[in-house]
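Per reviewer request, we include the raw input and output of the structure prediction for the construct analysed in the revised manuscript.
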Amino acid sequence: MQQIKIIGAGLAGSEAAWQIARRGLGVELCEMRPVRQTPAHQTADFAELVCSNSLKSDTPNTAPWLLKEEMRRAGSLLMEMARAVAVPAGHALAVDRAAFSASVTEALEREPLVTIRREEVTRVNEDEITILATGPLTSDALSGEIARLTGASHLYFYDSISPIVEADSIDMSKVYLAARYDKGTADYINCPMTPEEYDRFYEALLSAQAVEEKDWEGEAPASAGSGEQQPRAKQPSCGALEEKLNYFEGCLPLEELARRGRDTLRFGPMKPVGLRDPRTGKQPHAVVQLRQENARADSYNLVGFQNHLKYGEQARVLRLIPGLENAKFLRYGQIHRNTYITAPSLLRETLQMKAHPSVFFAGQICGVEGYVESIATGLMAGVHAAALATGAEPVAPPRATAFGSLTHYICNANPKDFQPANITFDLLPGLDEETRRKVRDKKERHRMQCERALAEFAEWWKAVAAPVSTVPAR
């Protein structure tokens, strides 16, 4: 039986493997961890969530909700697993990241049609059906092979990871529980700041020392409750840190935001709007939100506080936040380089290479940004690769769907200034002019766009789904 090869068992590769196996086809799933680790991963499990534990808004008729709803209707394994290990996060879907990756790994290890290879792949046979889902931390050797396939160098941006604190080290007398605008349950811990406390924090952040390349490559995560840097074997370089780093605008480091103006943080990750302090009845000057990290509720991550300051500097600055004066950090913020290809020049809307149609790209390496978007492209690549393996022609999803809007963007954007994208309503086609004149309410317009998307998705899925097993109940 022909096996479809998948390189990379992250979010996209794991979902692709599941979709192919559900269609009765064999999969060879290659993952280099733990034989070779990356600078950001902590485990050898599949679908490890590196940056945060949030899979975005679950509010109906939002763009992230639409993308997840399409995945749910397509029988996504990872969406099923995410629901099973969800932790309280107001109107967002957040997961216990360890339980999530462990459950995905277990499901794929149990699947008889999936053969797992724990090894680094450095060569790609363009004549064999292959899905490249190696993610933003693709190894140097495979990056060189992708450059050979694409005939071009990669693009990249720098991404950062938020710190995590031990729950017992939070001074609960100085914080309060609330969800913004009281949407959902009050699951977030909110650390309020006065103008004076905010100014002190802001000045400390601006003066804090950032990680340089030589430090970043050699640092390991600090041990629980420690502010010390732990030695480890030097990781392969992810590229020189330029004087002006190329960041993804949707995930800027805290210190970079601060440099844009004194109040920028108060309109970003420290926004107090909709977070009235029940003890005072007033809205604080600024707020730092903490989101539950796992089902045990023994750790919390600092929402939007991704950074690449030195560990000792992070401890000094973050302990200026009310309630975190004695915080024990289970993980400090880190920086890593995200690599992606110039998809508009290289890919069809079925995620196949134009020059090598047997080779598919999925996940962040194909030019999407975000966990949910990565899973979605993995699902699509799995469906399209299975179709190709059975002699059928892969059919791209309709433009009006969230699936179709994502692939339309990455395959039709201007290659000269191509940047990765999250799913937003800006990517979806708008309503016709007459409808827009009649319907002024933005939420109603979004509802109508979602309704149209799901109707067109249903027709497309009916045509491409069979034969497929349903995700078994767990």
